[in-house]
Design a protein that fits this description.
single chain; 78 residues; mainly alpha; 0% strand; elongated
Length: 78
């Protein structure tokens, strides 16, 4: 088993791709999405945040965040 991993690493270093790079990129992408979902769950589990969101409503929350998002996109384009 160790020899197969060593052979794969050697093939990757020689320039022939065996799909290992794509698998790793996919793993990083899925891991990042999982961390974002986990973080959002932690934030939404806070009773103060839940109370704030229920008072504002989803539409009010989106309307409040829109100017900040527009400002961020303008700064990003500079």
């Amino acid at each position: 088993m160790a020899t197969a991993a060593m052979q794969r690493a050697q093939e990757n270093s020689n320039g022939s791709s065996s799909g290992f790079s794509a698998d790793r990129d996919t793993l990083f992408l899925v891991g990042g999405v999982a961390l974002m979902v986990f973080g959002a769950g932690l934030v939404l589990a806070n009773p103060v945040v839940r109370k704030f969101i229920s008072q504002m409503g989803a539409g009010g929350l989106a309307a409040g965040a829109l100017p900040d998002l527009e400002r961020y996109l303008k700064l990003k384009n500079m």
